[in-house]
Amino acid sequence: MSTPTIHQNSAALDAADSAESHLITVTLRIRRFNPEVSAEVEWIDYRIPIDPKERVLDALHKVKWEIDGTLTFRRSCAHGVCGSDAMRINGKNRLACKTLIKDLNPDKPITIEPIKGLTVLKDLVVDMDPFFQAYRDVMPFLITKGNEPTRERLQSAEDRERFDDTTKCILCAACTSACPVFWNDGQYFGPAAIVNAHRFIFDSRDEGGEQRLEILGDKDGVWRCRTTFNCTDACPRGIEVTKAIAEVKRALITRRF
User: Which value, in Å, is the radius of gyration of the alpha carbons in the chain?
Assistant: First the structure.
């Protein structure tokens, strides 16, 4: 790694020091890339004062709003629901809005870079089109036959519990971009697509399970999984991703779901 350029808001740092407040000074080491300026990647250090109980997203806001307005990243709800601010923080896939500064050993530089396996468009922003195409390919919607019912399709609590875990996915791509198979082969559907297929395959109201199993039984489907558990470790919602993939594999063999 090349020696990073250091940017800092000197006035803010001096104010933080003189006030003897609860703020600390942290260094964000951010991977910068702007194809309109250069094909080279650059690591830049930004030193900022911040409350250690604040989040990495808050720190990124301080950099963008107070030091360098060219810094580019995605974020929307800022509360761990939209999934848009997934990035690699200290080498792990996380949501910036759910990661507290105090949990990252702020005495050392906090490294921030885009998630892996997807083309970087600028700074921390990646091309999500391949990820969402895989999601669409597994038909993530209820498939039924016959006439529409005159009332809602009822389901027992036990039947709902069967796929409850995989309903929690927020499509942040943290699991898929943590997968070494996906890094090396962009054709692999990836964990998130399989999780969302699982959510409908095991839904007692759905009648498209066989179609989805045929799709996931393809050479780019579930059999590419090497059960490294990277996806489960990366999921910010705590979904047992590897378990869900194993259940889809079992359904492919037994045709029971």
Answer: 21
- The alpha carbon dihedral of 66, 69, 70, 76 has a sign of positive
**Which run of H or of E encompasses 253?**
helix 241-254
Using alpha carbons, list the distances in angstroms from residue 133 to 114, 136, 138, 139, 172. 20, 5, 9, 10, 14
Distance CA(139)–CA(154), nearest Å, equals: 22
Q: Where do the domains of the chain lie?
A: 5-126, 129-254
pTM, two decimals, is 0.87
Q: CB-based contacts of 204: which residues, under 8 Å, 6+ apart?
A: 155, 156, 159, 162
- The C-alpha torsion from 135 through 138 and 144 to 146, rounded to 10°, is 120
CATH of 5-126, one of 3.10.20.30, 3.40.30.10, 3.30.70.20, 3.40.50.300: 3.10.20.30
Do residues 45 and 29 make contact, with C-beta atoms less than 8 angstroms apart?
yes
Extract the tokens encoding 89: 């923080």
Q: Are 5 and 42 within 8 A, CB to CB? A: yes
DSSP state of 100: B
Residue 68, SS3 per DSSP: coil
Q: State in words which class domain 129-254 has.
A: mainly alpha
Interval 95-107 mean pLDDT: 96
* pLDDT tens-digit readout, 152-190: 888 999 999 999 999 999 999 999 999 999 998 778 999
- Name 188's Cβ contacts closer than 8 Å, sequence gap at least 6: 179, 181, 182, 220, 224
